[in-house]
Amino acid sequence: MTGRELMLYILENNLEDEVVIKDGVFVWLMTEEEAAVKFDTGIETVRAWYICGMLSGTKIGDRLYFLRNASDPRKDDGK
């Protein structure tokens, strides 16, 4: 994510006065562990989806994060 994309995200979602970073991480991101719980699968499966490009994520330091509103990659949404 570029700085420009971050600013646009904040403006488009009316987050100018909202907390966007908590404990050093953007609040709209979830950890690998949280993604595994959300998708009812294991952490290694989440990592495999990321490596295969089935689930978009971002690395911050040594940690991998995903958008909280990410869709289950096993479900075809017709796109």
Q: What report would you give on this structure?
A:
It is a single chain. This protein has 79 residues and is of the alpha+beta class. A hairpin with a 2-residue loop joins strand 4 and strand 5 (63-67). It has helices spanning 3-12, 32-38, 43-52, and strands at residues 21-22, 25-26, 29-31, 58-60, 63-67. It is built from 3 helices and 5 strands. The strands form 2 sheets. The protein has a 3-stranded antiparallel beta sheet. The protein starts with a helix and ends in a 12-residue tail after the last strand. The longest helix has 10 residues, at 3-12. Helices cover 34% and strands 19% of the residues. Helix 2 crosses helix 3 (43-52). The protein is globular, with a radius of gyration of 14 Å.
Topology:
Layout: H1 3-12, E1 21-22, E2 25-26, E3 29-31, H2 32-38, H3 43-52, E4 58-60, E5 63-67
Antiparallel strand pairs: 1-2, 3-5, 4-5
